Structures are given as structure tokens and as C-alpha cells.
ATP-binding cassette domain-containing protein (Streptomyces glomeratus), 245 residues
Amino acid sequence: MVAPPDNDVLWAHALRFQHNGSPALCGVSVGVRQGEILAVTGPRGSGKTTLLQCLAGLVPVQRGEVWFNSTPVHTMGSLRRERLRRDRFGWIDPVPLLVPELNVWENAALPLLLRGTGRRRAKTAALEWLERLDIGGCAHKRPDELVSAERQRLTVARALAACPTVLFADEPTATLHRSDGAQVLRTLTAAARSHGITVVLATLHPDVAALADRTVSLLDGRRVTTLQLPPVPETEGRAACSLSA
Ligand SMILES: Nc1ncnc2c1ncn2[C@@H]1O[C@H](COP(=O)(O)OP(=O)(O)OP(=O)(O)O)[C@@H](O)[C@H]1O
């Protein structure tokens, strides 16, 4: 076992993962520093979601290592990974996954309630984040009364209300219009920076990745280095190319 660097809150080494025999990650190593916003980019099927799932302990690591601070995640059983996710991690899916029987503030407060936070404190935190995301007026509605942009704002509020150590956001604005998506991303990144929340953000889009402190690119389950070359006329060639690292 290799010791992770001290200043990384998350650290993965030589991760390999297959979905039903089909390779999704082929030896990926990555470190995420405390308070950093790290973008994971790459085309469809390049392994972004699988990498986030391994880092977040959502799936058991098949080969390689994942460390959260000085704790090995790759040796944890499902119950310990579940507790780690509940107490320290947040997750935002591309499509909102909400509990239809609970109202909006109860959905936003759910991670805090599951952690054992009192109902009044959890409600206060949930309402504060719903306000910041401009859906405070929907607090007593049910999720099916919201339009899709409001539902996605709710999942962002739910993730931030619990003030996780690490927030994993998998294409968090994929279902939103451009202007809506930009506003939600601004709120998310500003909140992360002001609260010292580390963010791992999977995205297909360079303009979303540009909001991050650093970008890691994947191609066919491997890390690649993207070289930005100076712009040249169309006829002379491409402005950027990727090299296997
Ligand atoms: N549940 C699954 N069963 C089988 N194969 C899967 C499963 N999930 C992902 N894969 C495959 O694993 C590879 C990596 O998928 P992954 O979803 O991690 O990539 P991605 O970069 O997040 O793609 P996208 O941008 O489309 O979400 C792809 O070839 C994909 O088809």
C-alpha cells in the first residue's frame, strides 16, 4: 500500500474498474486537494461517472486504492462506505433524484436528518439554502409540483445544506438551460469556496470546467494531458490536442 500525500483530501492510485467485464477505468491516479474545485472532463463513456463513484465509495474499488484523508476507502465494507458518504460526502446527479412523498424543505434537509441533526436545525439550514438558490418560495411544495430546473436547484441545495467535506457533482447542470445552469454553477462554486467544500465536478463542457481550479481529462478510462496551443487559422491545423499521460 502506498501512503497518500498529506495535502490531498482524496487520493486515488492505479484505479481499475469494469462494468460487467467492460473496462471503464484503466489505471487512473488522481489527487484532490483540500478546498479545491477539480473538474473531471472527457467525452461520453470516458469514465467520469465511474471515477466519481469510486472516489465517493458508491461502488467498491475493484483494483487500486482510494484514500479519504488518511482513511483507506478501498478496504471498507459497504456499511462503512455508506456511513462515510452520509457523514462526509455530498452527491449531485445529472437528473434530480428526490423523495416524492416529502416536501421540498424536507428533501433538502434529508441528509442532515439522516445524520441525526435535530429537525429544527435541519429545517433552518435547508430553508437557508433553498433561499440562496431562489426556490425558498417552493419550500412546502412537493417535488412533482416543481419544474425541472427547480428540482435540480433543490438537489444542489440538499447537497450544500449538509456542508459536506467533499461534494461530487456529476454533470449537475446537464438538464438546465444555459443561463439557469450558469447561475446554479456560480452558486455552487461560490458556496464551496466560502465554506471550504472540496468539489469534484464531472462535465463534458469546457466552459463548466473553466470554473474549476484544475482539470483532469479522461479518454477511454485513462488520464490524458490536454495541451492548449496558440490559436492558428483553420487551414493550418487544430488548436488543441490530447496526449496519453
Ligand atoms: N452500469 C453499467 N453497465 C455496463 N457498462 C457501463 C455501466 N456504467 C458505465 N458503463 C460503461 O463504462 C464506461 C464508462 O462509463 P461512465 O458512465 O463512467 O463514463 P462517462 O464519461 O461518465 O460517460 P457520460 O458522459 O456518458 O456519463 C462506458 O463504456 C460505459 O458504457
User: Anything to note?
Assistant: The chain has one domain: 8-229+236-244. Residues 234-245 have pLDDT under 50 and may be disordered. The longest helix spans residues 178-195.
